[in-house]
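queue> pop job 88
queue> type: inverse folding (structure -> sequence)
queue> payload:
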């Protein structure tokens, strides 16, 4: 290959940018650990000589992290010294020095560890065989029986700890979709361990009535099931709650009030409403799914919808507010990505009927979005093109799988633009992925590992620069 001066300059600049990534990842990870340590320090009562209990979490949607924080706060209130951390932050040395470990572990997909536990699974569970016979463990496993490997990672973690000699404080408690009875058993065990009977109640905020204000069919003529843009506002007299880009809406539907469905929020409070993107799901017999059928067909405009917003710490902006963002998704996963685009505009005071141009110094965004056909499935195309014209989206890669003989998906676009991905990441970009767990999320993760290296991607996840909201 012959390098012209322009090509040589580009190659050197790309190499330098990627070198900067590798050189800064370790520093940024240390900074994240230091911030976590400051957060943990606030939970440590001043009890000299008394060993602290570790409370850890393996969280994908933020539910396990929230339950772990509530656990740590409850123990702290009862006078128990506590250290709180993501499971991925624990080392073999930490386990060997600890006496008691309480872990809240969710499962990603079909039995895999969540992102916040990936480092632990790969570097500790897969390679270390420490003697943990001194360690006493209590484990709360979160799962959904709709998946074949219910509580898969929690069970694997429990088995690994026991195989290393760890002694259970009580039998593993498994939770099916926020089952209140299972959570009550967890609180009872904590109260017994802490020697108190008055731990605070952790029930989720009550569902409130919202009004279905608007519903727009986004993909008429599509070969796939219909997708709707839905807008919900509080009932008259109720204040609009606060939420952040990346958070979730939990909707209770008739016939399943005890098991609210989670939807990625596609808006920010400045929009004045919760926006959702909902695809009509079909059961094996062809009937409409309970939640999606009611939201897209059954409920009439003006009807009350029981709902609450829920923080999703793992997909919020966090420390990435000033960074360039690479936003990757497919289908109704555009909802979470749209929330972050609109959040970036709102933070700059540029969100309105017509977005203002991106101010100098505000980091750009790159959207890679996949669907079936350009003619029918380019959801919110006019809005996205407006963001491009005003400079908020520096680039958009639409990837339509069925517009050519060979199927093409977002992971293929990533591989095609590998040099650009490395350059953006080298300049500090964070990566957000939202959409289907089956197919897309795993393929995107493998492609990013090929582009950036598995260790670098794992370090980005630990630092909060690689975040996923997949379902």
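queue> result:
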């Amino acid at each position: 290959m012959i390098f012209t001066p322009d090509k040589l300059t580009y190659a050197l600049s790309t190499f330098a940018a990627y070198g900067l990534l590798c050189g800064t990842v370790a520093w940024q990870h240390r900074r994240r650990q230091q911030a976590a340590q400051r957060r943990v320090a606030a939970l440590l009562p001043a009890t000299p000589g008394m060993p602290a209990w570790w409370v850890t979490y393996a969280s994908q949607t933020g539910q396990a992290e929230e339950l772990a924080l509530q656990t740590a706060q409850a123990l702290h209130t009862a006078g128990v010294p506590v250290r709180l951390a993501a499971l991925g932050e624990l080392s073999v040395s930490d386990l060997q020095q600890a006496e008691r470990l309480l872990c809240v572990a969710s499962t990603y997909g079909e039995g895999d560890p969540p992102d916040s536990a990936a480092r632990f699974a790969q570097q500790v569970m897969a390679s270390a065989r420490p003697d943990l016979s001194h360690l006493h463990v209590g484990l709360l496993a979160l799962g959904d029986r709709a998946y074949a490997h219910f509580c898969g990672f929690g069970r694997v973690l429990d088995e690994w700890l026991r195989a290393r000699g760890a002694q259970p404080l009580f039998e593993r408690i498994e939770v099916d979709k926020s089952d209140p009875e299972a959570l009550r058993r967890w609180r009872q065990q904590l109260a017994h361990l802490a020697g108190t009977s008055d731990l605070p109640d952790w029930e989720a905020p009550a569902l409130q009535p919202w009004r279905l204000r608007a519903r727009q069919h986004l993909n008429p003529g599509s070969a796939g099931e219909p997708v709707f843009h839905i807008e919900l506002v509080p009932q008259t007299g109720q204040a609009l709650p606060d939420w952040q880009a990346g958070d979730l809406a939990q909707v209770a539907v008739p016939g399943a009030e005890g098991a609210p469905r989670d939807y990625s929020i596609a808006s920010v409070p400045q929009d004045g409403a919760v926006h959702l993107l909902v695809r009509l799901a079909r059961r094996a017999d062809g009937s409409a799914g309970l939640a999606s059928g009611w939201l897209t067909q059954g409920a009439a405009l003006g009807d009350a919808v029981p709902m609450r917003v829920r923080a999703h710490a793992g997909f919020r902006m966090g420390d990435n507010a000033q960074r360039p963002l690479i936003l990757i998704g497919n289908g109704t996963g555009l909802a979470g990505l749209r929330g972050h685009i609109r959040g970036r505009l709102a933070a700059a005071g540029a969100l309105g009927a017509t977005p203002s141009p991106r101010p100098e110094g505000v980091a750009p965004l790159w959207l890679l979005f996949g669907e079936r056909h350009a003619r029918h499935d380019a959801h919110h195309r006019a809005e996205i093109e407006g963001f491009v014209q005003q400079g908020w989206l520096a680039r958009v890669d639409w990837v339509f799988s069925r517009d050519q003989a060979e199927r093409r998906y977002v992971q293929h676009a990533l591989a095609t633009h590998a040099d650009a991905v490395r350059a953006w990441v080298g300049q500090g970009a964070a990566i957000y992925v939202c959409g289907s767990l089956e197919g897309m999320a795993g393929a995107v993760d493998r492609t990013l590992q090929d582009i950036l290296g598995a260790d670098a991607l794992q370090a980005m996840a630990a630092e909060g620069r690689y975040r996923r909201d997949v379902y």
